[in-house]
Design brief:
78% of the residues lie in helices and 0% in strands. The model has no long low-confidence stretch (mean pLDDT 95).
Length: 126
C-alpha cells in the first residue's frame, strides 16, 4: 500500500492558520507553531467575548428600563411584574428601545403595569 503524506491537506491547514494570524506581530504571523498558539488563544477570547457581549447588552437594557420605569413611579421589578400580570410579553431589548426612542409608548406600558398591579392587590385583599 502506498504511503500517504497528506501534502495538500497539511498545506491548506497551515495556510488557514497563517491567514487567520495575519496582522499579528513578529513570528506570531510568520511561523506556524507560534501562529497556531496565538490563533487558538484569539479564537477562545472571541468565543468568550460573544458571550460577554450578550451579558453586557442585557445589563444595559435592564438599566434603561429601570431608569424609565422610575420616571413613572415604579422600580424595575415592579414594572416587569406588572407587565407579566397584565399579560404583556415584550422582551427587554424592545422595552429598552421603547424607553429611549418612544417615551410616550413606554408611559402607556407603565400605566398598564401599574393598573394590573393595583387590580392584583385588590383581588388579594378581597
Amino acid at each position: 500500500m502506498p504511503r500517504a503524506k497528506r501534502g495538500s491537506k497539511r498545506l491548506e491547514r497551515r495556510k488557514k492558520i497563517l491567514s487567520l494570524a495575519k496582522g499579528y506581530r513578529g513570528t506570531k504571523s510568520k511561523l506556524y507553531r507560534s501562529a497556531k498558539e496565538s490563533v487558538e488563544r484569539a479564537l477562545q477570547f472571541a468565543y468568550t467575548g460573544r458571550k460577554l457581549k450578550k451579558r453586557d447588552f442585557r445589563s444595559l437594557w435592564i438599566v434603561r428600563i429601570g431608569a424609565a420605569a422610575r420616571l413613572h413611579g415604579l422600580n424595575y421589578s415592579q414594572f416587569m411584574h406588572g407587565l407579566k400580570v397584565a399579560g404583556i410579553a415584550l422582551d427587554r431589548k424592545s422595552l429598552a428601545a421603547l424607553a429611549v426612542s418612544h417615551p410616550e409608548a413606554f408611559a402607556e406600558l407603565a400605566g398598564q403595569a401599574r393598573t394590573a398591579l393595583k387590580q392584583k392587590a385588590e383581588r388579594a385583599a378581597a
